[in-house]
Amino acid sequence: MMIIMHPGAPREQIDAVIAAVEGHKLTAHPIFGVEQTIIGAVGDGHYVLKETFEAFPGVLEVQRISKPYKLASRQFHEQDSVFEFNGFTIGGTEVPIIAGPCSVEGRTQILEVAQAVKEAGANALRGGVFKPRTSPYAFQGLGEEGLEYMAEAREKTGLPLVVEVMAVSQIEMMEKYVDIFQLGARNMQNFNLLRALGETRTPVLFKRGMSATIEEMLMASEYILNGGNHRVILCERGIRTFETATRNTTDINAVPVLKKLTHLPVVIDPSHSTGDSAYVQSIARAGVAAGADGLIVEVHQDPPHAISDGKQSLTPEAFAKMVKQVKAVAEAVDRSLVPQHATA
Ligand code: PEP
Ligand code: MN
User: Fold this and answer.
1) Model pLDDT, residue 341
2) Is the dihedral of CA 212, 216, 220, 222 positive or negative?
């Protein structure tokens, strides 16, 4: 990083900063100008916050040169990471679609919807069994019973399962069932959970926190990567803004920005990012047009009666229509949907 001293900062202040830089096992490269001194601080990867030096007397400004995340960055891994699942890849030319209800509500419900999304072209099945509800009185999910129904749905359709994990204590039990853990927006900075997910070898669909910057998102994903779990799929699911016309605001910019900064696959969740089934198809198309590597979409056979997120859930028919539209968009940007037979 570059530590820029105030013009005319006395030599003692400059020396104190140089000593602090060296105290952090960084090498100091001072450039003494006529009026102003700039101290370059170069290290071997040991991470030191820029705030560490900002409080020193005589320091005007500190600028970082390298990114605060490493394993997630393109500098670390130049090529796109491509992960393979049963029936599809993500991060390459294929654009897989994960679909299913917000919550697993019962055996018949999940088996029916799994079959419907599979027929419409989905490549993986989503369904929450531990739900992060705003109210403690709202439906909290079926827990392990729901996972048993999900496992039955996988057996019948061949679709891999994506299920949200909310606590470290759930990991061991859930690993017996799930193919991909979902890390929810509300837990994006639950560092204990992130560390525990880093210790597993189950891939993670990592959702952006509702008020998280892209840099915070990448730094949080670094916790999982740093534990040795390299299969992290990033998900833009909308952020909180001043706009109230939709549940969240889809940060469509995040797609090309993330693709530039990181080698990890990036998916869009048009269901949570809009909160309204009327907008889901448009934003699914936009996400793929912007370069997303996949989609995760909520689908329910009877949205008005869904226990959670019915307003934003597509019917299987609307989902099938969305898949057709997304296919055309994917082809327009030199991508393709996963061939249907692959998951048969
Ligand atoms: C969900 O996928 O149902 C969910 C709760 O998502 P998010 O964490 O993005 O709000
Ligand atoms: Mn939901």
Assistant:
1) 63
2) positive
